[in-house]
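Entry 12.
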Amino acid sequence: GADVNVLMGQYGAALDSRHSHAANLAAADIGWNSWYELWDGVDEAAVRANAALAVGALEPYRPKERRLRVVVDDGWQRGWGDWWPNDKFPAGLDGLATDLGAKDIDTGVWLAPLLVAADTAVAVDHPEWLVGDATYVHLKNGKMRILDVTHPGAAAHLAETISRLVGWQMTLLKIDFLFVCSWQGQRHQDVTPMQACDRAFEIIRDAAGEDTVLVAVGAPPLPALRYVDAWRNGPDIAVENFGPAWAFLPGELRSLAARLPFCMATLCDPDPPILRTLSQAEVGFGAWTVAAAGGALMLSDDLRTLPGERLAWGLDDGRAELALNGKPARPELLFPAEPPSELANALFDQIEGLSRHVVPVVWQLQDGRRVAFNATDAAIVVDDGTTVPAHAALLLQ
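Predicted 3D structure (tokens):
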């Protein structure tokens, strides 16, 4: 039969994506995102300070034709569905973007455009805008309702929200929790879940305009890829309850392998390399995963407190160039010789102190070199005789 990597490549090439028809393709981003240490406690002062430090950390790796990008993640808004800056951002997103833009830094922002907290004015005043009998329960923020984009009022509200953010000079929108577009429920129009998703992405793209970068997170790929510039291909790289932990790293690599055709069709955002707390080998494993994805190089530690030597653990010219390549690396053997008896779960692995993810070991990088990943708890020997320590990645000779 045909080689599975050839078949995956053919499938990826056949996918209908924005990258196959857009006139101005977005390049892989380089910059800093507030989420993975500041969480929803982020404030304007922290963003400004980290933006200045990110310039120093990333300038050696920034292609001359690309500007650094700072993304303000969850925590800037008054509430989910109430997408206006809160008191922690006294200059507003517009003022922040104006000041960063004067330093040649672009600004992006996170939002969950289809979710509305059940107690917001939108949910209370316009129940007809919401998908009937559909509720999403966020582990931290409680009950959320889902915008019914087939309702003209809800569609107009969504478009106005996106247009307002773009008007505040948000050149990138990180749109999250998009899986809810497909949830079953009573809609104003009788459409399939995938038609509802397509409608949502179309509204967002039209309101954002052609030049705004859209990064889709938690999104079904087939309807999303036609409209977005980049797609988060894996789970979160850390969670607030645990902070940085090894157990979450192998899942990013497994997700890259499992979703490789989509990463051939768009920019795959692998989440940032986590530089704090982890061992040097683990930081390197995460950094090589980011390099293998080829879709972005974003830092997300609080650079005000990060020890300087840890930057070098995750950043160097070779890995930075691959991370900004725009195309993914490919595993040499996509499927394990012995499939696992059950799928791994990062939360369970973290709680039990185990490493049970099964991932492809040897990958061919975008420049033709090879790298070996060891996601297990013991050293392994790869085909050229190189010993790869536990929780580590090594470039092969």
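Annotation: Residues 152-167 form the longest helix (16 residues). The chain is about 35% helix and 20% strand.
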